[in-house]
Amino acid sequence: MLLLLVIHLAAALAAPTLVRLWGRKAFWALALAPASAAVWALSWTSQVRAGKGPVESVEWVGQLGLELTFRLDTLSWLMTLVVGGVGALVLVYCAAYFSASAQGLGRFGGMFLAFAGAMLGLVTSDDMILLFIFWELTTVTSYLLIGHYSDRKASRRAAMQAIVITTAGGLAMLVGVVLLGETAGTYRLSEVITDPPGGTVATAAIACLLAGAATKSALIPFHFWLPAAMAAPTPVSAYLHAAAMVKAGVYLVARFAPAYSHHTLWRWTIVVLGCGTLLLGGYRALRQHDLKLVLAFGTVSQLGLITLLVGLGTQATALAGLAMLGAHAMFKATLFLVVGVVDAATGTRDLRRLSGVGRELKLTALAGALGTASMIGLPPFAGYVAKEAGLEGIEHLEDGTVGVVVLVSVAIGSALTVAYGLRLWWGAFATKKAVIPESALAAAAAAKDADGARGPGATSRVATQPDAEPAAISHPSLLLVWPAMVLALLGLVAALLPHLGEHLLQPYAATLPAGEPGHLALWAGFTPTFVLTLVILGSGAALFAVRERVEVLQSRLTYRGPDADHLYRRSMRRLDDVAADVTATTQRGSLPLYLGIVLVVFVVGVGASLLAGGRWPQAVRAWDHPGQVLFAAAAVVSAVLVARARRRLKAVILLGIGGYAVAGLFLLQGAPDLALTQVLTETVTLVVFVLVLRRIPPYFSDRPLAASRWLRLALGLAVGLTVAGVALVAPWARVHAPVTEHFADEAVSWGGGKNIVNVTLVDIRAWDTMGEISVLLVAATGVASLVFLSRRTGQIFRAKEAINEHKVWAGTDPMAALRRGTDQARVDAPATNRVWLSAVATLAPQRRSVIFEVVVRLLFHTMVVYSVFLLFSGHNAPGGGFAAGLVTGIALIVRYLAGGRYELGEAAPVQPGLLLGTGLFLSAGVGLVGLVVGGSVLRSWIIDFHVPVIGHVHLVTSLFFDIGVYLVVVGLVLDILRSLGAELDRRAETGEDPAFAEGTDLLSEAGERR
Fold first, then answer.
1. Which of 37-51, 443-457, 837-851 has the lowest mean pLDDT?
2. Element (H, E) at 336
3. Helix, coil or strand: residue 71
């Protein structure tokens, strides 16, 4: 099972490349990933039926008891078939659905497979924490799929609505999972179901779990997000909203039903939500004119029915619920795909504009007829078999009045299903006497928008005209038709083999605590259930026959009370208003105020704790070495001077001096690694500050009033004393042995290195480092986003592309007036062919420094080689990936300072994003390799071998993790140079940045005056 997830992940990552190479045909190859899951599940059919399905467990985070545990039983087997089989067919459908020129197909394919993999992980997880993780992954990926058409407001709104609602339900479910896991003493799902905890905690957990299921499966009052999600492409609707995502909530109910279906809260919640959703969805489906909205509200209705069947807690209804789950996936995916064909052929989904489609698209109409027949419960289709079993099971409920209410609700809901099912097929394929002209439809849509109709289900009546032309019909590729036909025929085949279905699904039904075993049958005789079925079919047909009167009646009975979608939107607006008010109150645009509040809270909170209960040392040693006094004094003096400096550049330099002094303290304390990293970091930071200073005035604003200065001084002293107090008290507050006391031995035995600091970073505390390099990547993205507003990165400036007329850093020469006439003789002297740097010809002559160029030419390659030495020696000597990356970054900085942006392009002709992504991927990949080979995540492996000539080689796999850190750091520095350096230079020279150009002119004028 873990291998299947890896296959889905690999396919998702490869999707953009495959689509770029093969175009739409890549979807055929991508379909192999979900198809492999379905084939794998089929290969385990007999073992699963015998209760001997596969179980895989891999330790994830041992200290926290987290495991990657997967288990295949009857329920997960069925869901795997649905997720894999329908997913494969929908991907094949995508190969013909999207046009060859469609944008974002690579991203779409990757997100589709990522969602399929998340669903596969969700239905096979046997660990509740892991189940929640996959649950949230489906939420995120579905958000991206629903919002695929990101340029459309409806798609963006629908995606946001879906993720807000399902995420809220997911958080509630997480609370329930934690309550159950902590009470039961285990998070293993199969163990919790076998021996479920009880009491008040169980009641709270049930409420949380059902809240999560209700949001995911669009049960009332959260049903409105599903119709809105029809803004997604049709393949997304066919997969997520018919076979996969919305079934996650049903799966959750089915999974916990054996444990809690007898609970009063569970039973009443299932009955109310199931019956209410069944009736509301069916009623709303009758009034829709968009074919996808008919299916959307129909899906809402049938999700209520399936939830009701699997949650009632009897063996008969559970069997019927699983049968209906499978049948619904087949016929509803069929119908969504068919609607996509009709949309592609006519350019509309409004049934009032369609006429004669069935005569032109006979195969499509046949597939739609088969799917509709199964949906409304006609024999001999899977929907009929499942519905008959459900009615039979409900008739034998021993709940008295509750059983009667459920039976009546299911009967009415089924009749509504018949009515809107017939209306769907009639609206899509029938030849009508009158249709609505396109102009009238557009006018009605505009009027509806102006009227503020609420939600995607709002409709408006427009009179048909006998002489109006229906939508023109084209003939799309047959590849669009046959995936739907395959699913429709599978629904027929499944119904013809009811005993096989019962044989395969009965093991799950047997886990339910109540009721007699149910049966699946195509013909069970002339029973009360069959009579009820005839009544349902007749009532539904009658409603269809008087559909126009029903529509008029519905328009007159328009509900004016609270509307779920309206309440959601109103709540979100209120939330925005509250957020704006809070922001206006707390975020007033004053950075000193923000920092002051933070520091005051720190001093009051931490300082009070120190004074109240701090354990102070008996004696304090002032210093260990006299040199520490000098470095400390330098740091103090520089800090004081920084506070008094009015020129920004002066403050930056003094701040750097303080940082170098701290590095000296580290060195004297016996920490050369920290000292080296501090020096390198201060150097890079100094350059970054200088680059930023070009965009802001050279001087700070006017000094604040004297009273304010004294207040700031007092706050600064209080913060310093509080930090000093923490440093003194913290060592005495320890109650356990430090975790670092064994680091020296662990670094050698586990990490294979003698440099404790570096081994800690890449092995012992590698998770921390993963978080830190992720933050670096986010920081790089943030810096780039501030400069590159319309794209992630800028161009790579190469010397051969430079325009000779525009020299880099030309501007105004402030020293021109001081030049003597004899300088012209040196300018006119014969030039040599010696070029020290590749792109110095692009630099303005007055900005060149030959000495600097020579020094850079001599040092650049040496620095790069030295950084590689630090990288490979860091496991046993001072160095490591972070320090090595900073050295390489400084090498790139000096190349940029010596030759400008074109020199930077020659030195590093690569996009920073590539380095950042590769580094993070390499570091994460090393962690996953340790997991795949049977260890834990980010575990290091020590490999010793002999190489001729070189000799003995001691290799630790964490070296590759360190290489990833190195690439991330180099990518960060290069990203800063490209954005704050090269791009701002280009804007200044081209005049695109007026503020920057104005600041440059001011500096030049100041230089001339001097």
1. 443-457
2. helix 315-346
3. strand
CA distance readout (Å), 9 to 2, 111, 115, 922: 11, 10, 10, 16
Three state DSSP letters for 113-178? HHHHHHHHHHHHECEHHHHHHHHHHHHHHHHHHHCCCCCCHHHHHHHHHHHHHHHHHHHHHHHHHH
Beta-bridged to residue 67, according to DSSP, are: 59
Nearest to residue 518, comparing CAs of 327, 387, 385, 389? 389
Instruction: Output the pTM of the full model.
Output: 0.72
User: Taking 60 as the threshold, does the pLDDT of residue 835 lie above it?
Assistant: yes
How wide is the angle at C-alpha 600 spanned by C-alphas 595 and 601, nearest 5°?
A: 100
The answer to whether 406 and 386 are in contact (CB under 8 A) is no
Q: How far apart are CA 777 and CA 918, in angstroms?
A: 11
In angstroms, the CA 113 to CA 29 distance is 12
Instruction: Find all residues with CB under 8 Å of 11, minimum gap 6, and list them.
Output: 30, 32, 33, 113
- The SS3 of residue 51 is coil
Burial class (CB in 10 A: 0-12, 13-18, 19+), 584: exposed
Amino acid at 262: H
Extract the tokens encoding 94: 């995508």
Per-residue b or e along 301-331, where b marks 16 or more CB atoms closer than 10 Å to that residue's CB: bbbbbbbbbbbbbbbbbbbbbbbbbbbbbbb
Residue 852 has which token pair?
Answer: 């600097």
Determine how many CB atoms are found less than 10 A away from the CB of residue 526: 9
Find the radius of gyration of the CA atoms of the chain: 35
Alpha-helical (H) ranges within 315-437 are: 315-346, 357-360, 362-376, 382-395, 401-429
Give the integer Cα–Cα distance in Å for 442 and 459.
Answer: 13
Identity (one letter) of the amino acid at 732?
W
Task: Decide if 29 contacts 96 (C-beta within 8 A).
Answer: no
Q: Which helix (H) or strand (E) holds 573?
A: helix 564-586
The Cα–Cα gap between 786 and 794 comes to 12
In the chain, the amino acid numbered 883 is: A
How far apart CA 717 and CA 848 sit, in angstroms, is: 45
Distances (CA, A) of 24 to 13, 92, 133, 299: 16, 10, 31, 29
- How far does CA 281 lie from the centroid of its chain? 30
Cα angle 415, 418, 420 (rounded to 5 degrees) comes to: 110
Q: Is the pLDDT of residue 703 over 60?
A: no
- Helix (H, G, I), strand (E, B), or coil: what is residue 638? helix
Q: What is d(CA 661, CA 666) in angstroms, rounded to the nearest whole number?
A: 9
Neighbours of 276 (CB within 10 A): 17
Tokens at 332, concatenated? 């509803």
Residue 191 has pLDDT above 60, yes or no: yes
Residue indicated by tokens 């039904």: 509
Rounded to the nearest 5°, which phi and psi values hold at 734?
-70, 135
Residue 238 · residue 336 · CB < 8 Å: yes
- 465 phi, psi to nearest 5 deg: -130, 125
Does residue 676 contact residue 880 with C-beta atoms inside 8 Å? Answer: no
Cα–Cα distance measured from residue 145 to residue 150, given in angstroms and rounded to the nearest whole number: 10
Confidence band (pLDDT; 50, 70, 90) for 1002?
Answer: very low
Query: Taking a C-beta distance cutoff of 8 angstroms, is the pair 76, 124 a contact?
Result: yes
In angstroms, rounded to a whole number, what is the distance separating the alpha carbons of residues 26 and 12?
12
pLDDT per residue over 103-116, tens digit each?
889 999 999 999 99
* Cα separation, 285 vs 277, whole angstroms: 12
Residue 910 phi/psi, 5° resolution? -145, 145
